[in-house]
Amino acid sequence: MAILAWLRLLRLPNHATAAADVLAGFLICSQARILELPQPVLWWALAAGVCLYAAGMVLNDVFDYELDRLERPERPLPTGIISVRTAATVGYALLAMGSVLACIAAFISHQPAVALIGAALTLAIWTYDRHAKQTAFGPAFMGICRTLNWLLGMAAAGGPAMPEQWLLPIGMGMYVTGITLYARDEASRSRIATLVVATLLMLAGLTTTGAYAYCLATKGGGSAWLTAGRLDSWMLLWCVLSISILLRAVLGIIDPSPSRVRAAVGNAIMSIITLDAVLVLSSCSEQWAIVVILLLAPFLFGRQLVSVT
Q1: N or C: which terminus of the chain carries fewer CB neighbours within 10 A?
Q2: Is residue 12 in a domain?
Q3: Domain membership flag for residue 64
Q4: pTM for this model (two decimals)
């Protein structure tokens, strides 16, 4: 029971999305074409990103303890299975560990930006959990955290090196801002206006991120998919994936019940891994895209044990 409670507190499945972002950012800036053992810096950056994500999940519940006692009494802290003090200790330890790991990644890669981004991500996570979550700026802070997580992987590879690469962290940040806003009232019946704005933000994020492949193709760059004139095929794949995400969001607007909204949020979170894999496909070999999408396996397995929201 205690182990399951910790898995719920950590929201274990979602860690795969954090790993996918760091991995995708690193691969795209490295323009990896051959499937081979990655550089050591990637492992340190991955560990930093996952630790910081885990810290955010734990501290989220620590600072939401009083609210969860009323709205989500089944959560691990309100039930008393895990004490608030223990959770806070673990959360801050993970936050510190993530920062240290980012510094190690910066040292071995000779990229000081990795340490700076790690510090910025640490501050953004704490600010969101402690101060911003219940304010109008909460969703934007969550989007900033996702943007910084992408940049953590990109900086470890010396990027972003091209102007269009900035579309990736910015677009994914917008997308996650939309998801966070969409999920804001999931414990009760959501407001339709909020869901509409959130869905439009997700659409804007998907459009911004997808524009990266178009910009890359017009410059004659990218993977074999783009250089072989398959931009249309890539765009079709991106559009199909985007429509599948947005359709679930629209269904939540039609019926804003907690179960329908949570289903849309869970689908949007899971799709982060698939989106990252398709983005990798635009710049790297198909083998690396497969490596990224394989992160769906731990996500789906973990979802059988605990909720992603």
Answers
A1: N
A2: no
A3: yes
A4: 0.92
Do 89 and 152 fall into the same domain?
yes
Residue 1 in any domain: the answer is no
Rounded-to-integer distance, Cα 267 and Cα 265, Å = 5
- Give the CATH number for residue 118: 1.10.357.140
Contact between 87 and 77 (Cβ < 8 Å): yes
Q: Provide the residue range defining the domain that includes 126.
A: 38-156
Task: Using the 3D structure, point to which of 129, 156, 183 is the last residue of a domain.
Answer: 156
- CB 142 within 8 Å of CB 174: no
Distance CA 212, CA 152 (A): 18
Q: What is the distance between the alpha carbons of residues 32 and 44, in angstroms, rounded to a whole number?
A: 18
Query: Could you report how far apart the first and last alpha carbons of the chain are, in Å?
Result: 19
Query: Are 149 and 125 contacting, i.e. CB atoms less than 8 angstroms apart?
Result: no
Predicted confidence (pLDDT) per residue in 54-66, tens digit? 999 999 999 998 8
C-alpha to C-alpha distance for 74 and 76, rounded to whole angstroms: 7
Question: Cis (ω within 30 of 0) for the bond into 160?
Answer: yes
- What is the rounded CA–CA span in Å between residue 236 and residue 230? 10
